[in-house]
Fold each of these.
Amino acid sequence: MGKSINESVLIPADRLRKILYAMAGSWGFEIGFNDAADRRGKLPLGKSTRVIELDRFGQSISLTGPADLMDRMADSIVQLADTISEQERENLSLTEEIVERYQQLSLLFDMSDRLGAARDNQSRMKAILETAIDAVGAEGGCLMIKGSQEQWCWINREKLESEKLARLASKTMDHRKHSVEENRHCALPLTVSLGNTIGSLVLGPKTKAVYRSGDIKILSTLVAYAALLLESGRLYEDLESLFFSTIKSMIEAVDAKDPSTRGHSERVRRYSHIIGEGLGFKPDELKSLELAALLHDVGKIGLPDIILNNEKEYLSENQWELVRMHPEIGVAILSHVAQLKSILPAIGQHHERFDGQGYPNGIDGENITLFARIIAVADSFDAMTMNRTYRSRFSLDKALSELSQNSGSQFDPQLVNLFIANINKTEIMLDV
Ligand SMILES: [Fe+2]
């Protein structure tokens, strides 16, 4: 943490010399640094020499000049030395402050780097704990968050007195105050706002020294930032979980329309995922694709059961018209949800065919959005491999060969190839 201000003050020798030379010269004095002895004996008449110890600078000087002015000159030099020393103390204190701020800033940058890859609160907790441990050189520690349920994250638990640390974590959360116990354990509350403490950070012994006030300062900066980050992460996760529960109940409502297709949406999600992975989708793209796959038939919510349970050959033209409306009904239902805007084309186009003979708009090839082309393959594969009231399911080989036969006409050939190449046959056989 920089140089202590209690140590003797050292300023660059040439700067000190310049100041003292200028002052002494204007009074007719000569000044020497630590070389007074060499000059005695050669003194002209009326002149004297004196050695002055400037303890605060860790230096002594010799002053040679008019004897009658010597006392005043010596006093002035000591006074000047005191003033310079005071200024240097202030400079050092400022330097310490700057160093401290720099350390805090680089700590937060370091934590941001580590947090970059964290996708959930558990990984965020790990990144924060690692940063805290490295910042003070502790052997390990734990981070605890109390929400609807407690979440814990430990590093090097086996090296620590874990029960003691866990007790200290709970105590710190309740008392909302930092503490250092037995100079070995350091604990800080994670406070979001006055009176709102969401958890605590407890670190085990430092590997090389005991905890000092500088450690607490730097950890306080870290936990202040971490508390806000974890709280917003938790709120986001709660919101996301609410969003997915709502989606899940919509999907269950669709699946419940026809017991023979129960689980269809979930399986289409899984098959779409296989193709998405084969295409090298990033996690965010995979998430969107899976959401579109789960919701692709949500427009069937409004269709009568009698229509859904029948093979299309047995439907009247009017009924068939209704069936062909379900992609657009799905889009209309979901268009009110801002988070689903990007997947609406996939919902609306999942019955389009690669050759342009599909519905509702008869668009073809790459005019059909990629997600819709993927879902079309996954949807048909699941329909073929499931028992229906009006027919038995296809064997896996027959279903795959059907996909191949319709590759280029009904389906995008590249996606069919990817699906066939990547599907794990054993897993599918077990599930069906
Ligand atoms: Fe559909």
Note: The chain has three domains: 13-101, 118-235, 257-431.
Amino acid sequence: MKIRIMMTEDIEAATDLQQRVYSAIPPFTQQQFESLLDHFPQGQFVAELDGKIVGLAVSLVIMWDDYSLHHTWNSVTNNGYFDTHDMSGRTLYGAEVCVDPAVRHHGVGHGLYEARRKLCRAMNLKRIIAGGRLPGYHKVAERMLPEEYAKRVVWGEIYDPVLRFQLGEGFNYCGILKGYLPADDDSLGNAALIVWLNPDFDADRPTVLPTTKLLQEGI
Ligand SMILES: CC(C)(COP(=O)(O)OP(=O)(O)OC[C@H]1O[C@@H](n2cnc3c(N)ncnc32)[C@H](O)[C@@H]1OP(=O)(O)O)[C@@H](O)C(=O)NCCC(=O)NCCS
């Protein structure tokens, strides 16, 4: 399995992948992918296995103070066009990660998260923040609020394939984002706000934008 920077030629395969992964959430459009690659080519990774795209991780840089606890996926990405990417911010925002259902639980997600952490370090950004889906929540929604669901995942009583994975990747759970992604039926629109702090962040040093070539060599 190889993790590499996403290229325009990967758009069709990335769209197919999102279609295989999500039943209710529509894939990015060609225009949205193009806009993403235009704004921040350094932040987009794919996982390739035997020449096939089996994973995707989409990120942008944001000014976290502009969003905080009350943001939605649409507000942070400007409806998936990613022109909210702002290099004066010091937060890497994870806007999408998905792995082909056929190859899950083999470390592809870990590889994509590792690539993101490397990017965060290489850029001297302070942290990675994301709104994580809670795909198991709909099964228990009649019995508990999403806050209780997430806490039970954190203390190990409920298994959620996304939040459990993210906690295992060293992220901290910071609360529930309500109405984050209304199309996400499984999570009933909710998401978990998660954060990973870059231990190497140096506030006195500026943000560094690595070349895609350098990143390709370093992943
Ligand atoms: C979340 C997601 C990206 C994880 O991808 P993945 O490739 O399965 O991730 P990994 O294989 O690295 O880790 C998943 C689990 O497999 C385990 N695992 C990894 N390699 C393994 C191996 N070789 N043998 C056994 N288990 C392994 C991990 O420890 C992890 O366990 P956990 O769930 O108890 O934490 C994937 O489930 C997915 O695409 N979900 C749908 C899309 C989605 O909701 N994305 C999140 C948007 S916020």
Note: Residues 21, 97-99, 104-110, 132-133, 135, 161-162, 164-165, 168 surround coenzyme A (CB under 6 Å).
